[in-house]
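User: Hi! Is it possible to get a structure for several chains at once, not just one? Here's what I have:
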Amino acid sequence: MSDVLLAAPSRRSLSLHDAKVRGIIYQLLLAASLLALAIGIAVQTASNMRARGIPLSFGFWNEAAGFDINQTLIPYDTLSTYGQAFWVGLVNTLYVSLLGIVLATILGFVIGIARLSPNWIVSKVAASYVEIIRNIPLLLQLLFWYNAVLKTLPAPRASIELPGGIYLNNRGLIIPEIQLYAGAGSVGLAFLAASIFSVAFWSYARRARDRTGKQLPVLWVSLAALIGLPLIVFLLVGSPVSFVTPELKGFNYRGGHQLYPEFAALLIGLSVYTASFIAEIVRSGIQAVPKGQTEAAHALGLAPGKTLRLVIVPQALRIIIPPLTSQYLNLTKNSSLAVFIGYPDLVQIFAGTVLNQTGAAVQVMAITLSVYLAISLVMSMAMNAFNQRFAIVER
Amino acid sequence: MSGQSLHPPLVSAPLLPPMAPPSGIRPSPATWIRKNLFSTPFSGVLTICFAILAAWLLHQLVSFAVLDAVWAGGQEECRANPDGACWPFIVEKFDYLRYGAYPVSERWRVDLTMAIGAVLIVWLLWKRAPRRNVAALLFFVAYPAVAFVLLRGVASLDLPVIDTVLWGGLLITLLMSIVGIVFSLPLGVLLALGRRSELPLVKAVCVTFIEVVRGVPFITVLFMANFMMPLFVPDYLTPDRLLRPLIAIALFSSAYMAEVVRAGLQAIPKGQYEAAKALGVSYFTMMRLIVLPQALTIVIPGIVSTFIGLFKDTTLVAIVGIADFLRAVETARVDPNWAGPTISSTGYLFAGLVYWIFCFGMSRYSQSMERALARGHKS
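Assistant: Yes, the chains can be modeled jointly so their relative placement is included. Here is the combined structure:
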């Protein structure tokens, strides 16, 4: 009966009063205007580029760049191509971002936990750090570290000498260079073997715990394997490492590994700034775990350390990780501020020097934007996978 | 009591004097210190370490900014003093830091624009102010036009046109942030509505725009606006050099604003939408009168924190040659007439203080708003 009463009208009315029809019309209008805009821009851009003699192809990629870059992790010289310059910039961006993420995470977690300390002065110092750093633009902080701190260090001849053959001056931090001899590879292999063993032992211990209820000392066994095995091999092959201490020759130091002030300022600035945001995320994540969880754990007789490690942290982490991911992405994007202090990152080399030399604005910007989008995409995918592992299984 | 006459009293008539509370319950300074600073030996060690650290930092700051600073005098005094800040430098550069190279005789126009803006913002944000919707209308519609006329000038109104090359300093920073908020909020609302739309194409376009813009650094957006916008349009339509970063900042922050507004839209119970539809209210009326007023109110803290981010991001426009406040500090800092040893530090300290006051003020407002909203939801 009700089926008959509620049956839809068989004839579809094609009137403007039908929301579906209107929806289709709106979308057609949107598509048409977007298409018109895109075609208009494309035509105009092509004609403007031709009129100004700007290259329309990606041919510049294989041309010689002709400029030098002072900080590279991969081989590069003046004769290299624009394409190689791009890779140098990308690797530098990833390098400073990864180091920054590690440092900012450590600093941020320490400060976030310190903010929750029952000790009044510790929590106040942490709170002041967050409130001061968070409310000052990152660029100002970078310029401060670079111009007011690192650039006012003494000149190379009057370097500050630190123990262990480390020198600090306005050209950067110069540390002894590590030279490896034959046999150093076997130390690396030993470390690899120890890592594989640790993972295997961890998974065995988990299964053993599920079966017997006894917890094996995973942490200590893996630490012993990870440190002990490479150390034994290191001593067996006869310490295949030597340090080359830097020496002052002329106006600068020769030998040794140099950490440039541009890199240091960017790394310090990014880590310090992002740490203030991570600290807030950590604080709110831990506070979001209900107090009843702590009380229940105590009531079950769990020690405070175990309560934190087995009850609070896993739940807090679930809340912390999504905003933490977006902070990591922010840090990576903010590393483009390198252009202001002259660290050769992707934007400085590629969207700066290469764009100015070739004039190929459209191609260069398209590549730069795609790289950042790809980094965002890969990082959010990785974090989503991680998040899924950690997500609580709800009833 | 009425029962007293029927039963003999069970309680002795003279009441015992009240006992003093046990020691340790009433917080005396000593118990407070024991509980909050020296609860365990480790906590005590931390207290001492952090107290020394805090005292040292405070001492450094106070001696640099106050005790050892040069308060009166000029370039000679600053050059002779390597320990403290050089405040005469800030005093001399103060007008430059505020207006850039805006002509001195016309600076009243900047002041007037800022005063109007300040009045409107206070009206808009003060919770108990009357007719805040009028303030919103004035701020988002009338104010941009008035500001344009005042700042740029219209020859027929006897206000000489000031070329944007001359604009600079705090004027640019505030202009960038105000333009950013005035245009990004409506755009962000549209994008958020589009993202939650049932029309697949509208949704796809909005999602793509939001995710692409949020995935790239602001500097690259500025580069694009600066280098590519002139290529996109015919020569006679090329936007002004100041207009290009303004467009960039408005588009960039609208993507972030859209995500904030979307959170608000999602927080509105489904029943509100369904009730509106059941009453036969059309989509736009439903959004305008029922959903958006509720959604925007609960995301005010989010809007303010996006605005703080936008305010800090305005510093990046220096990369395309716009002399914002920080750029003005950088220019003033390298003035050879003032080549004292602490000029850079003084400039950065002053700039940091200015930015901090703005951002901290806004974040305090957003926190108080958050508390007020939380109260409203509980009752």
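The domain at 180-320 of chain B is CATH 1.10.3720.10 (MetI-like fold). Chain B has 15 helices and no strands.

User: Great, thank you!
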